[in-house]
């Protein structure tokens, strides 16, 4: 079911399906909830799945000059309120969605039963990366999205996916091109100022699953394994035949990791 939720001055698009313990799916950058299309139905066979379009992405509006990760997390909490979901949720976020997961933990931990961190990082940008993001924000505002896929796809998808699954590369390209430069620029600026959360990791006391694509060059498996080891009891799973976009590149393996993790804890 597709929902249009009016919260303050913003209209959020949210897709839900299924019954069972709630599982929130939060997308990466510069994407929308469609990046979870291949896992949405299989996960909804066992869960109430809630896939959101973050502020400024997909069919959600609410543009700002900058959207810090804290604001995205507050938006997700408000969406859960609006949907009347009082039960604690499993929060799954990929990459930027993972940066938001840290803020959910920090600001709304009473809402969380578990976390699933997909292809993401615990460290902040260095000054060079942060400057590059601010420049990229200016570039999309002046030139639009047309150059973005060609620059990003080699980093988002494994070589294997690009050659063997052209339909995935096509869907990802189209998803990027659909995004509004205002939302993209605001999130880039927000990511540039996100904090290093390494000191939070030993405090995390809810079940946590860390998932990395074996060929992820943005958040490489070794780095993810390293921060997973700092989270008490966290499980780490490396997904074969995938780069940064695990839910699109190897959806079956993602479901095989996620469903038992959620089931074992029920
Ligand atoms: C993402 O997939 O959300 C981005 O790679 C995050 C980032 O640019 O750090």
UniProtKB/TrEMBL annotation:
KW Nuclease (keyword) present: no
EC annotation? 3.-.-.-
Q: Which SUPFAM superfamilies match?
A: alpha/beta-Hydrolases (SSF53474)
Q: Which residues form the AB hydrolase-1 domain?
A: 22-251
Write out the entry's keywords from A to Z.
Hydrolase
- InterPro entries per record: AB_hydrolase_1, AB_hydrolase_fold, AB_hydrolase_sf, Epox_hydrolase-like
**Hydrolase: is it a keyword of this entry?**
yes
**Class of the enzyme per the UniProt entry, highest EC level:** hydrolase
Enumerate the GO terms in the molecular function aspect. hydrolase activity
Stretches of the chain forming a coiled coil according to its record: none
Q: What's the protein name?
A: AB hydrolase superfamily protein YdjP
> What organism is recorded for this protein?
Bremerella volcania
What lineage is this protein's organism placed in? Answer: Bacteria, Pseudomonadati, Planctomycetota, Planctomycetia, Pirellulales
């Amino acid at each position: 079911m597709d929902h249009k939720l009016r919260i303050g001055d913003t209209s959020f698009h949210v897709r839900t399906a299924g019954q069972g313990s709630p599982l929130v799916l939060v997308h990466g950058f510069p994407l929308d909830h469609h990046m979870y299309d291949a896992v949405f139905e299989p996960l909804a066979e066992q869960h109430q799945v809630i896939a959101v379009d973050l502020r400024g992405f997909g069919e959600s509006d609410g543009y700002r000059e900058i959207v810090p990760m804290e604001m995205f997390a507050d938006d997700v909490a408000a969406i859960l309120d609006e949907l009347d979901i009082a039960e604690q949720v499993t929060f799954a976020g990929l990459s930027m969605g993972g940066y938001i997961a840290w803020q959910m933990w920090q600001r709304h931990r009473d809402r969380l039963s578990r976390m699933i961190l997909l292809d993401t990082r615990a460290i902040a940008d260095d000054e060079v990366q942060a400057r590059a993001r601010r420049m990229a924000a200016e570039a999309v505002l002046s030139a639009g999205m047309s150059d973005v896929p060609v620059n990003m796809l080699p980093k988002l998808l494994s070589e294997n996916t690009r050659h063997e699954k052209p339909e995935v590369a096509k869907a990802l390209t189209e998803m990027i091109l659909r995004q509004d430069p205002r939302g993209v620029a605001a999130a880039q600026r927000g990511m540039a100022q996100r904090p290093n959360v390494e000191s939070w990791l030993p405090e995390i006391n809810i079940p946590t699953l860390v998932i990395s694509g074996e060929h992820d060059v943005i958040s490489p498996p070794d780095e993810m394994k390293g921060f997973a080891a700092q989270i008490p009891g966290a499980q780490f799973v490396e997904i074969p035949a995938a780069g940064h976009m695990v839910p699109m590149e190897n959806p079956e393996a993602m479901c095989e990791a996620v469903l038992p993790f959620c089931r074992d804890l029920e």
